[in-house]
Amino acid sequence: MTSPGEEICGSLATQCLVWDRRIECDRGCPPPMPGCVRLGFGNADNVTLRLFLAVALQAVDQLMKSQGTLFSPEQIHVVRHDIHPMVRLDFSNAARYVDRKKASDEAARVSMAQAVLVKVAKNGHLTPCDPIGPLKTFMASMNELWEALFKTYKGIEPSGDYKSFYWKGICRPVLGLGDGLVEAASAEKSLCPRCEPGPVFSLPVWSSVMELSLSAKSPDLRDFVPADHRVPMCEWIVLASDGGEYTPYGEWPPRDCKDGIWQKEMCAMRVRVKAEARRQGVQWSRYPWPSTWKPEQLDSPVTLRTFQECIQWDLDERAAFWRVANLGDLLKSYRLSSEVVTQLEKDALELIDTAQNIDPCKHGRGWYIGSYPQAYVVLEPTDGGRTSRLCLATGPVCLTAQNKEEARRRHTKFWDQVRNDAGCKT
C-alpha cells in the first residue's frame, strides 16, 4: 500500500488489477463474490503492517455493521478492479463454506474474527515482531477491537486514513516483443522500478514450478532467484559460505537440485486437469509426450521414452534458470501483449495438430488446450541469446471434447479469457 504523497504505478490501469496470488486455493468454499477475488498471498509475498491493518480495520468495520461471523480467511475478499485495497466480507454465502462456524455470543464472534486475522497475518508473512497485540488480547466487543487496531494503525499512519491509499507491489508489467527480444514494455507514465521497460532474462514469479524448484532444503535456493526479471544471467552471482561464488556458468545449485522437477509438476498437473475436466463437463485423456514440448536436443533413434526423457530434462534445465511458469501463475505478475497471446494460442493449436498426427485416435479429435492447468510458458533464448521468445508447453493429459467443433469452441473461449486476464487492449 502506498504512503502519503506516493504516486500510484501507472501499470495498475488494467482490467484485472488484483489477483488471488496463491498457487492452490483452498477448496470447500463457494466461488468468489462478484467483482471480487479472495485475499490470497503467494509464498513469496510479504504483506506490510500498514496494508494488514488497513485490511483488518475494514473487516471489523463490516463486522460492526452486521451480525455476520468471520470464521474463515476465505471469506475475506478485495474488489478486483479497485486501485485502492477495498475489503468485502462474504457473509451471504456462509452456509456454503465447509468450515462454517457459529458464534454463541458477541465475545465469541470477536474471538473468531481475531483468530482469522491472525491467520491472514501468518499467510502474508507478517514478521513476528510486528505489533498485532489487539488480535491476541481478549476483547468483549467489535468496537473495542476496532479501537485497539486503529490505535496501532495511527502509530504508523498518523492520518488514520486506511481507505484512500493505493495498491503497491502488485503491479503487472507488460511482456511484449521488441527487436526480437521478450521485454517489459509499457506506455504508461509514472512507473515503479519493477515496471520500467527492458529486456527480460527470466520469469522469477512464484509458480507451481518454482515452488518445486525451491523445495530443496540445502542450500536455500531462494537466494538464487534474481531480484528482477531484467537482470542478465552474467550478473547472477551468489556468494558461497566458503568465500567462493555461484554462477549460472559454473556451479549452480538450482541445476543440481532440478532433476525430476518437470516429472513432479506433470503429476500435479494431471490432478488439476482432471478437476478442470469435471468443472467444464468434458472428458480428459492421455496425450502424446512428443506434442507437449519440442526440446533442443533429441537422441537417436527417437522413441516415445526418448521424447519423454528429453522433454523432462530440457524443461528441468530451463526451470533451474527460472524460465518456466504456468500461464495462470504468470498472469498474476505480468500482463501480456496481444502479439504474445496470439503466438501462445498459435502454439497451442500447433501442439494439438501434431498430437493428432502422432496419435490419430478417435478421442484425439476432441483434444484442446482450454485451461490454465494445461498451459505453461517458457522463456526461450534464440540465436545464441541475442533474441528470445515466449513459447507454450503442455503436459501428457488433455481436455477432451466430444468432437473437433466443440473442442475449437472451448479453445476459443479459453484464449479469449486469457486475453482479458492478460490485459490485452482490444
TrEMBL record:
It comes from the Eukaryota. This is Uncharacterized protein. It comes from Gregarina niphandrodes.
